Amino acid sequence: MAASRQAPDDNAQSGQRPNRRTVLSGLAASVGTAFAHPAQAASATPAAAPTLPDVPTLTIGYVHWLHDVETISLIFTPAPNNGRAGAEVGVSDNNTTGRFLHQNFALETVEVRTGQDPVAALNTLIGKGIRLVVTDRPAADVLKLADAAAPHGVTIFNAGAPDDSIREENCRANLVHTAPSNAMLTDALAQYLIWKRWPRWFLAYGETPDDLLLAEAYRRAAKVFGARIVADRQYKGKAGSRETDSGLIDLQKQLPVFTQNAPEYDVLVCADQNSVFAGYLPYRTWDARPVVGSAGLIPTSWDPNSTEFGGKQMQDRFIAYAHRFMTALDMNAWVAVRMIGTAASYAQSLDPDKIMAYMRGPSFQLGAYRGLSLSIRSWNGQVRQAILLSDSGRTVVSMSPQPGFLHEVTVLDTLGTDKPETTCKLPAGQKT
Amino acid sequence: MKIPVIARSRGGRGNLVRADPRPPVRAPNRAHLAATFLAMTCGWLLALALFATSPAHAYMAYASNEKDNTISVIDLDKMQVVKTVPTGQRPRGMALTSDGKRLLVCLGDSNRIDIFNTRTWQVVGSIDTPDPEYAALRKPENNPLYVSNENNALITVWNIDTEKMLVQMPTGVEPEGMAVSPDGQLIVNTTETTNMAQFFSYATGKNLANVLVPPRPRWAAFTHDGKQVWVSSELGGAVTVIDTRTFKILDTIRFQVEGLRSTFIQPVGINITDDDKLAFVALGPANRVAVVSVPEHKVLSYVATGHAEYNAKVKKYLLVGQRPWHMAFTPDGKYLVTANGLSNDVSVIRVSDLRVINTIPVGQQPWMVLVSPH
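Predict the joint structure of the above. Result:
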């Protein structure tokens, strides 16, 4: 980070433009693989921003899930530092402020591969006195981490798992969810579809447990916003992958058949959390209908094309640091780290207890390039936030909440589980 | 909300000429309307011809159109765009020299500031600096120029005649709003993402104070007596009044518009009248400009807080085009022009009766507007 910040400064000193142009032209040249493994970038990224001498430092932990993800679209293959790079830029942003407020922040990352125990990683961090930990592990591990962290007064920031259960019936007092829940994502899409007057949905979902949860969230969203699911079908069997020589031909035959003989519908809503089939649906449906959900028009907390509300600056800063585009997971991790930094500057303290008290308090607000500011829902620890609707990473089509969907407190709470509906029950005095 | 241009441009609007106010304009008739339509359809050629042949006696307003990379030059007498000047990429912040002869335009995506001659619209100078968002000139010397380099967390300071950088000062994340005190001794900058108003000394360049304000501070404006600086917080929905001697927060002014959620009230531009009596605050997506009593904010802070005090502070809300961000007074202080980013127009507010008297279409996503001093 030190090196990447230094370059522009040096250039500015001599009146020259910074290196950004080179960075961008490099990006343009490799735009097709920008999402792919930038191995050199990952290995070149230091774990944390430099520590200033004589300034008190708060170290934030990061339990990073290092795993291979196969995607239908090559350009969406996540980089090994997916999420983590967002946290690193967040720490750098914290320190840019911190240098004026006598506060310094660092990030300590522990990588955990699939099958390895995340709790051991957490204990390593706790052993170093770290009490605020971000993770991108799946829901079951988030709960394990939260339970292991609780006796030590450690707060876990869930940047990756969208499962509603860990916010509702299985909620924990020491969990903050910067990742939007399935309910928020599906509500965001539903509002737009209703605004468009596309209320007749063909719901297509996959076979994995998380596909079933997401499909359930769409059924709930349909009910809440007055859409009708006119066809409800599970896609069985793995579709061809890009490695299969004859994949395209098979898909071209398979998918029209799968979507054939449906009642009249407006949009095909697909729920596919693991990139198994949804990416193949556009242009291959029996009827000429748009695809939304896990492919086509996608609800997400961030998109590399989002430039509104000052987002261009965030994109520029991230690209200059990570040499790739910023994903939703990067954004969720950035939000977690910036929530900590922002609470620390207003609380004027690096004490994790004071930081969390301010963050969960009534005056906390974080700007995160989506118009309305982010804050924590007191009833389940979910960070309320606007949701972008992305045209599969090409453009941002819209942002929800949509106009006309009203709420007595904040329009952001038209997305996801609202206070009267929550099933999260925490012991008295432990409200998140 | 948007006042039809044709109806208003012939109706009872005030003249914006600097001297020799004209006799009242006649009520509209068919011929006038036809002529207006003709002028509109003939487009730029006719407008340019008129501009070229008639003496420039009216105030000119300049709007920077962030999305289509142009400056709209607006004749405030004719109440129409008379010239569209192509610029580099993403023009946002602008500054005018005291004599009005040079317009500095921050070109964020071209990584430079171009200096335009406001008569010929030729580029007469250029400053290479990364991602400039806004720049403020120290006046009346017209030097140095303080530039917010948004992506680099830096203020760079330039001599605009030699185009050389003098010094750079580190800031928080995303420096944006910038202002120089009337005596030229104090510089203030707002950092959007890290929520500070940062003060620097002109003489030493040293960082004097960092004042935490509500989230996403966008703009700073000194009172003309130099005793206070007013800082708008876009997400915090507030204006913070800071004492420039002690750097203490004197007051936090919040806004409330009936029928609007507080989250849509996002203050950005602040313009304070020369007599330090009124402050105009553009409220972004609330589509309004708030009028705030400058002296009373302090007097009223002794009164019990609540709606009564609140309404007294914010005297009136004005409906303008959509998402007004930045504004400029005409030099006589009689009119205030707002740049409305979503509706792609500028509104003209008559200060005497706080009425929007005209709305003029400009380019795509106007970010800022300035008015010539002559």
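The longest strand of chain A covers residues 57-66.
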